[in-house]
DNA sequence: ATTTATAGTGTTTAAAAGACACTTATAAAG
DNA sequence: CTTTATAAGTGTCTTTTAAACACTATAAAT
């Protein structure tokens, strides 16, 4: 008895239970672009694959959707399993489906991106030795269509960071104006005018300036700020406020 | 011999061929939100399901991904099969995956939206009697998570139409300024100032004003315009031009 | 010739974005 | 203690873009 016959038997028996007959099933992968910001540079977390196919090459982290979870949960699980991190900003990006995108097996990949404050989370939790933070600019070639995914994630991050307060997810809770500006300069990949940037940010009126200073950055030190999420949400709700940089 | 046993045998035999062992497979559906613009109103194409589950209820059109095609191709095929239309603007929107979203069977749905000029395409091609163009504002409740999909599609269309020349996909090749304004008013669901709108559009400098007039709209008649796609693309390439309404 | 319905047309004001340079606070060095 | 070095902090003017606003023009129908 051949494998295919056996599958047919199983399928046919199973189908009595289902409405959608004879449709093809596929493997659903979840791949994650993990962005981190480290003082001056935007980085992504990559791994050197220690399994086939494409063993030894650089890749995004990923996993497979399980029957009893939705995609958001799968993305959270993948991130948690491989980095130990939880309670992280994640967002679905796009679904990739080229027929031969994965030479191992027909696989569709739903891509997510995550934003992490590299400093605040100690990375003892990283479950894989082969994972490294790599500057976006120096990123190596990745397997499959992962480069395409990263490009789309950067475009999304760029757009989204200009219209939503997600940049703060990449910063420590307390940050200086210069850090915030550095972050936006990294995301947009261009220099911004310091005075215009600060005026802009202040006009949004969603930061709280602390008395505390960060003395590591200069002789003079720089005041620390925090993002006032409650205030932001209240403004959105009450005045239809639009975060816009 | 139970079905599950049989499946296990088949699976195990099969796995020698595959890299990714013991991962769950799922059904991948493709659902389409089809937008049409009919003189004054933004509409979507809906069907009354004549099959289980949820037979008799309103739904988006959809189908299932096949082994030998990617998602874009599946979306094109679904649209073609059910409406006879091809060469239509389509774009992937989002992937929906709630565990119990489809009571029939565990199904993940990748959602697309399409933009159609209702007038230009004669709908003799429509393959299903049960399909109807329904004004967005009067749309009935849809099955599963289809309402959520439509909401997201509207949001996407709104954003995208403000920053890309996709609105023209919803209009006849030749259109009046008023039609274009009506379209944007429908998409944004708010009134726009006629003079400001025309000034804005003219400043973009991507329309060609024809000598021809549409005499059906008023005694005076209204000049017809066409979108100059070549000019637009040249501007984008050469000057980094940004379509922005 | 008059009516009627919609097309077509500019200017002024307000708001937002962009360009631009000097002073200040503090720690470290001497 | 004085000097020095370093990045922080701060405002104004100009340009561009968005928004408010109302009358005239055209052609068909009567």
From TrEMBL, chains A, B:
On the tree of life, the source organism's domain of life is Bacteria
Report the GO molecular function annotations. Answer: hydrolase activity
Question: Sorted alphabetically, which keywords does the UniProt record give?
Answer: Hydrolase
Nudix hydrolase domain: residues covered: 27-156
The keyword ATP-binding belongs to this UniProt entry's keyword annotation: no
Which InterPro entries does this UniProt record tie to the protein? NUDIX_hydrolase-like_dom_sf, NUDIX_hydrolase_dom, WH-like_DNA-bd_sf, WH_DNA-bd_sf, WHD_NrtR
| PROSITE patterns, A to Z | NUDIX
Query: What is this protein's record name?
Result: NUDIX hydrolase
Q: What organism is recorded for this protein?
A: Flagellimonas pelagia
